[in-house]
UniProtKB/TrEMBL annotation:
Name the record gives this protein: DUF87 domain-containing protein
Organism: Duganella levis
Start and end residues of each Helicase HerA central domain: 15-186
Amino acid sequence: MQINIVAKKTLADGVIYLPYWLLSYEALVALFVDRSDQNAPNQAMLMSREVNNAKTAYLTAGDHKELLADFTIDSPVPFAVDALLASLEAINNEMVPGAKAGSEKMGEFNGKLSRMIARLENKISDRRLGFLFQGGADTLHFDWLSHLAAAIFGSTAEKGAGGVKIIDFSEVPSDVLPLIVSLVARLAFAIQQWTPSDLRHPVALLCDEAHLYIPNRSDADASDDISISIFERIAKEGRKYGVSLLVISQRPSEVNKTMLSQCSNFISMRLTNADDQAVIKKLLPDSLGSFSDILPTLDTGEALIVGDASLLPSRIRVDEPLVKPNGGTVDFWTDWQGPVGERRIDTAILNWRKQSI
């Protein structure tokens, strides 16, 4: 599955949208509120109030009043972003009666939401964030979340679902990548958490290039903290809800230490960097610390495996896949000697400009 904006493409075409209303309150604030703004506390407070009002209006208009007494700002209830923007602009331009009869003065929050509104308008119009804001009317349907969850997390026994789902985040901008990846993880955890225990089916999340969105807290910024918190919670509590993590990274020294400490098994391929080797060595029992000395000498396809899955620490060779991934190492020796495709550079530039292959 691919997360991007493709005209007239839907879940049935393997294209998913993750609409803004799925974001938690903390994620909404991180996305739209500039923490350096002196009015940031007021903006965050008004964002909370107006999002709650927008969700209340949606539930009321859609005859879902049975949810009104229990839902919170973090509940996955759709709401129209245009209506939210209009309410924020009304507050930002509000004039109230003045002390003198017939006079007016600026409201309490007049002019204090300008930067947040500008950020929100910019995000809505940014085509790179089309998967958040340009999903169309379908994503505002009350039952749309059920279809999304079934497409991503449904098992083979469920209609239209497969056993393994690959979600391509390559077109998601790097500045919001942690928020969006953690949103999918939050969906998985929430669905498992709110499923009765007798109906739960295990889910495993394979986190490739994990250092990009689960970094060390010392290296993280404010937006990364949300992603780290969600993945840390899954690492600590996920097993009792049937959610497990497989953390994959070429730079273990840059991955969150809490995540690594919760892993029960380690499969380590060749590592030549001293910092990365040190991380693996610390994760091994004292009696097995010397095993880390073989990490820089491992051949391609060889790995050191330690943990509950293996009775003894073992040096193994991984079989080559029958269908090799497109992301495999290019065969430079052969390709350099091969013919050069016509118009390859023009094609690349056109795709770059269209942001699509």
